[in-house]
Amino acid sequence: MSTVTLDLLDCVALVTLNRPEQLNALDLEVRHDIDDVLARVRSDAAVRAVVLTGAGRAFCAGGDVRSMPTGSGAAEAGRRRLADHTQWLEALIGLDRPVVAAVHGAAYGAGFSLALAADFVVAASNARFCASFPRLGLVPDCGAHWLLPRVVGMQRAREILFTTRELGAIEARDLGIVLQVVEAPTLVERAVAFARGFCEASPMSMALSKEILRSAWTTDLHTVLGMEASAQGIAFSTDYHQAAAARFRARETQPFPPAGWSGRGVASEAPIRSPGAPSASDGER
Predict the structure, then answer these.
(1) Local structure of residue 254 (DSSP, 8 states)
(2) Rounded Cα distance, 134 and 140, in Å
(3) CA–CA separation, 163 vs 166, rounded Å?
(4) DSSP E strand stretches across the chain
(5) Domain ranges of the chain
(6) For residue range 146-177, what is the model confidence (pLDDT) as tens digits?
(7) Check: CATH 1.10.12.10 for 202-255?
């Protein structure tokens, strides 16, 4: 695919927006290609985590203004343009394994929303976040109204969305939008290293916990407790848990979290393999 590339770094899928001349602006083709790439990731049990980044000078400059409808009928065309093409975003937010956004340069408009859709954001020191939609008289989209308040709270979300002010990497980290700030030349390496830390975790445990966390914001405590009980029943039945419990009883070292990984990642390298090729990390999902 020309607009989105997929490289498999052993157990980590590196997904790259590939429109550098347009600062990786999102048009309908990019959205369709993201959806296709995520379908390939979901079908590959060897992929335990995903890193999402952008080629060139920016992560994503937002929606492609040149492809936006104008003139007569623009209101209905604009509604359809988003309402009929949101499956890619739901697929990203609902992906059953950890997603790390590696953000450099501009993450503007829908690009800001795209970063928020990840589970974690590792940002280069030159990263800039901005909900720029009102500058064009538009409403924040790509889930910004749902995603941002869950990270920074409602009042701060209003301030960021309404004023369109730019956030640097350090302020974004202090607000909880960014997990870690790194130097730009090491961005993808550090993001992949962090993502690699999940490769020895139970895929089922990660998937179930992500599902519960997504639901926890919009449901009551009783329902969440029931979801946890059901998920725990599934987790108890996995080969991963049985092996981990046996290691615990034998006082053996567990594979997760890996040595030297503290949630910030360590520098490492891995060979690129072809999509669908078997991996040493293949196992129960």
Answers:
(1) P
(2) 7
(3) 9
(4) 4-9, 12-17, 49-54, 99-103, 106-108, 120-124, 128-130, 167-168, 180-182, 272-273
(5) 4-198, 202-255
(6) 999 999 999 999 999 999 999 999 999 999 99
(7) yes
